[in-house]
Amino acid sequence: MSTDQSAIPAEYSIVVDGLTKTYGDFKALDRVSFEVQPGEIVGFLGPNGAGKSTTMKILTCFMAATEGTAKVAGYDVHAESAEVRKRVGYLPENVPLYDEMLVWDYLKFIAEVRGVAKPAREERIEEVIERTGLHNVVHKEISELSKGYRQRVGLAQAIIHKPEVLILDEPTTGLDPNQIIEIRDVISEIGEEKTVIFSTHILQEIAAVCDRIVIINRGQLVADGTLDALQDAVGADGLEDVFRHYTAGETEEGRSAIS
Ligand SMILES: Nc1ncnc2c1ncn2[C@@H]1O[C@H](COP(=O)(O)OP(=O)(O)OP(=O)(O)O)[C@@H](O)[C@H]1O
């Protein structure tokens, strides 16, 4: 695991305890609890509207929980959000990129905002460009990039400050099969030294990349374990079978308000 930041050594990189989030009278998350160990790559699965993005937004301090607590890298997301933000990298579902900026200028800007100090800043930008395969487009405007390269820029901004924990919300959505494999490889490589939690609807991706799977359904955690353990637990054959077992019949429209 990376020790770039002066983090308090934590047994777990992520501890989520009884997390609940309501939007008006709608319960999007209902007492969700799980832990992630340092260096683990965890796949976060669930049908549309299950509560994956909501969980990720809380873990990255973009949104407050209604009840429950979450700690990232040993710090509370509510009480110690500045410490959490230093140690977490986040690729949101829709990456907010500045279209008119050149890739290099954008990464320089993010590095400054993230406190990557000179003289190491340029070297760090080069490292991130190398790692995310952006060298061919560094002098292009972001508006000119394909979806796959935009995702790479999104990943680059998420790792530029050497976070201990990386949270990626559907990093491969909308990519072609080649791009999916390339981004997956980048995630695997990054995961060798970071804790990663990422959501996806592409089940093969989970099997290829993740150490562990967390499944969320209607705002509740319904499964947590390795693929083998989850298959054995329900007598399923493959992750698709596991997923259907825990989430079959769910639609976002079927969700009810708090009773
Ligand atoms: N700002 C909001 N106001 C009201 N309801 C919301 C808001 N954000 C999310 N929701 C609802 O909360 C539920 C969980 O949404 P969330 O985006 O966390 O799901 P998800 O698992 O990430 O779904 P997807 O796979 O479609 O991205 C959904 O029913 C969604 O409509």
Overview of the structural elements:
The protein is α/β, with parallel strands linked by helices and 259 residues long. The chain has a domain at 14-97 and 164-248: Rossmann fold. It contains 9 helices and 10 strands. Helix 8 (227-234) packs across helix 9 (239-247). Mean pLDDT is 88; it is low at 1-8. The protein binds adenosine-5'-triphosphate (ATP). Adenosine-5'-triphosphate binds at residues 23, 26, 28, 46, 48-54, 252, 255.
Notable features of this structure?
four-stranded antiparallel sheet; 10 strands; binds adenosine-5'-triphosphate; nucleotide-binding; alpha/beta; Rossmann fold; 259 residues; globular; AAA+_ATPase; six-stranded mixed sheet
Q: What name does CATH use for the topology of the domain at 14-97 and 164-248?
A: Rossmann fold
pLDDT averaged over residues = 88
Strand segment count: 10
Adjacency order of strands in the biggest sheet: 6-7-8-3-9-10
CATH architecture classification of the domain at 14-97 and 164-248? 3-Layer(aba) Sandwich
The H/E string reads: EEEHEEHEHHHEHEHEEHH
The SS-based structural class is alpha/beta
User: What is the H level of CATH, i.e. the homologous superfamily of the domain at 14-97 and 164-248?
Assistant: P-loop containing nucleotide triphosphate hydrolases
Broad shape? globular
